[in-house]
Amino acid sequence: MTSQQPSFTAGQVAPGRAPVLAMHNIRHAYGHHLAVEDVGLEVRQGEVVCLLGPSGCGKTTLLRIVAGLEVLQRGRVDLNGQAIGRPGRGHVPPEKRNVGLAFQDSALFPHLSVLENVTFGLESLPGRQRRRRAMELLDQLGMGRYAESYPHTLSGGQQQRVALARALAPAPQLMLLDEPFSSLDARLRDRIRDDTLHVLKRVGSGALLVTHDPEEAMFMADRIALMRDGHIVQMGTPRELYCAPVDPFVVSFFGEVNELEGVVRQGRVDTPVGEVMAPGLPDGSRVRVMIRPEALRVVALDEPPADHHSHVIMAKLLGRTSLLHICAHAGGGRESHLHARVPGVFLPDEGQPVTIRLDPSQVFVFPADPGAAAGAGAAHGEAEQDHREYAYGHDGQ
Q: Where is each ABC transporter domain found (predicted)?
């Protein structure tokens, strides 16, 4: 089928619930460099929205505009329906926006204890209430026993938890997180972001998270805005972006893919691993066929068939999955080097003959001519899965 836009897009409001954050037609430039162009998005109460994209795509610029660290040049920013940013109508400073900020650098006050760091922004509360609020958040983040410790005695992960507690302590309407986990090692990063997600959901604040890591975005976000060159390419749930991508960039950003070329004949494209449906694309048009490695279902054969057959070049165990390098054979002597991801331990010998079947939900077809792709989306099978595996991409032609 042809990919459709997600059911919730920027500009829409959930029934009966005004957005915590609304950004409209944001444009921002640094000198002659245009960082963001015509961007709009919303964050609802209790929702985590992730700005995802490569370095320089404009995601951090958007977060800084919301935080008040950049003066808005064009567009409008509303917080709970109240304008906090409009060009020429006054700039609301960060400290008056009721937003919490968490960055890669925890930026704790070194001369204050953990408890004092968390209570720093709670001067309006009586002393006992300040302590109670701070200890409640520290306990939720597993840092209660370190309340009297000082930042230099804590690990990087512990410092990040304290920084998150400090940002959440004033009960902000919106949390802004700019790559807060990127400086942590992989195992610790997984644990910290899991704790962070649980706390965000428990307190019910809306959250805008910036990251360049697609796995982190899929884990943390209710919706993802994938950006490129200052624009949002696609916005939707993790499942929508992974299973119904509207652009080749969206497919490849969530993990490398096997990429082939072909020609549409009667709504189908012939590939070395079988026919792929391409409805909505004109006959005779050249297309890009993008196949996720988990879409290749590999079965070892006891005996090679009499005619040409596909075979294993190499197999590597990567822990939870096995990575297979496969030479896929097709009619006319065509061969393609493909990579397949198989769950568990599956390590056939070099030269092992195999058959390959496709999961159509993870195969995407786009016009080879970018100009012809405008509005066309991807043609592919019904989406049946919502998972992510890193894979290897190779043009088999």
A: 21-254
